[in-house]
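subagent[fold] <- orchestrator: predict structure for attached chain, return tokens only, no commentary.
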Amino acid sequence: MINESKVASMKHISRAILATVIAFVIITCIFATTAFAGLANEYNVIIDDNGNEYTITTDEKEPIEILNDANIVLGANDKLDISSFEESVGGKIIIDRLNTINIKSGDAITPYEVYANTVSEAFEEIGINVTDCTINFDINEQVVNGMVIEVELPNAVTINADGKSLNITTLNITVAEALANSGITLGEDDYTEPASDAIVKNGTIINVFRVETKTVDINETIDYKTVKKEDSSLAKGKVKVDVAGKDGEKLTTYKITYINGKESSRTAISNKVIKEAVDRVEIVGTKETAGSKGGYHTGQTIRGRYTHYCSCSICCGKNDGITASGIKIYNGMANPYYVACNWLPLGSIIEVDGVRYTVVDRGGKGLSKPGRIDIFTPEGHAACYQKGTGPCSIEIIRLGW
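subagent[fold] -> orchestrator:
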């Protein structure tokens, strides 16, 4: 006999279990649906933070929220580039950080603010050609805020060599190294200014001097000498050529130094006489003859110079008008055609540019020079200035006492 109460109880329990199972299945389905829906909304985003890249998975749509999920904080002057980012699809978010780099050149340190990722990009941003510099970092190294980059900047150097001028940029090297880098070699005797071991600086001008030495044979003239011989049988003032002079010839060997093609010096190292010079021999008369005194003779012509004087105290230093010969002169008299000089005897008669004068007076030491005369001017002191001074031709007509 079946206990109906137990059967009814069992049916009740079965329905409860079934309901529970159904509820669990429903909850599980709802959870799974929700979870898969969440996973379906997630996507990958690449974040480039100043050159450092990494990928995150997110379901955020706004770039700032995505960065917040990634615990990335932007500075006040940092730049955000989302041109390669697409909401709910992915792409790349690029962050350009504003960093300060310090450029040290010598003892000077200059700060620069840059958005560059690498040292090379930073130099390009601030306008320095990194290929011309020596620096203490690899050019591909990441920029770090506050980094100090030591830079050895190039020098502008001019090289003048072989008729050409070459402009180069170089670092702190020697003159010799600068020439070698430019393909310029020095000969054994060549030299430079500055010296080859000097360190070049900005604005240095290097001059190359090419030194060449040659041995040259040159035919040269040997000048003849003039020998004078006195002859007491020949009238004084007369000269007779006894032997005509002839130049000789010699071959001289020189060592000649050229600097940049121009002769700098020459030294005679040997000479050989090819033909001896012949001396010119002159016979000089010393015999005093009539009409000859003190080395002067009648008929002799001398190139001279004249001035004028009168009988005033300014010209003569006295007022009596008495000349060295005793003849009295005075201003206003008829022209007596007198002259003063110290090199001819008193009483001598000379012809000055065709006008005859008599030597009656002496004067200062200036009148002792041969050809120097002072012409008496009876018209007075003003006339002396008017007639002035000048060259003249003097012929000795007669020698005085």
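orchestrator: received. Logging for downstream: The longest helix spans residues 4-41. Residues 192 and 208 are 5 Å apart (CA to CA).
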